[in-house]
Design goal:
122 residues; 20% strand
Length: 122
């Protein structure tokens, strides 16, 4: 996911917003719970992804990529450098996630897409 052109802007936005919300707090290391709400647009949209794929992308996106994971140039420009894939943002290791409460919501408008994440842990 770290090299896919369609995923990079999403990952940069996710990592930037969470890093800002953490306001300097260290990443969570143990007993991590995630509450996730995703609004994907109307139910009639057949291009909406599976809920488990959203969960995986967010969990993987909030921890550091494996040190040997190759990254593209976009991650080394000024926008991507602060949230570079090799930096841990909010979760030290997603193996420490003990609970996930996730819901995919359908909204009325095609243009209405959003998600919220709450992280709890030590």
């Amino acid at each position: 996911m770290w090299k896919k052109a369609i995923e990079i802007p999403r990952l940069i936005a996710l990592r930037t917003n969470v890093l800002s919300a953490l306001a300097g707090a260290p990443p969570l290391c143990r007993n991590i719970s995630i509450i996730l709400r995703i609004c994907v647009g109307p139910r009639s949209n057949q291009n909406v992804g599976d809920l488990d794929n959203f969960i995986t992308g967010i969990c993987d996106g909030l921890q550091a990529a494996h040190a040997l994971t190759p990254v593209v140039e976009k991650w080394t420009d000024p926008v991507g450098e602060s949230v570079h894939p090799h930096k841990t943002i909010a979760i030290q290791d997603d193996a420490e996630v003990i609970s996930i409460d996730a819901k995919k919501l359908f909204c009325l408008k095609e243009s209405e897409h959003w998600y919220s994440i709450e992280l709890i842990g030590e």
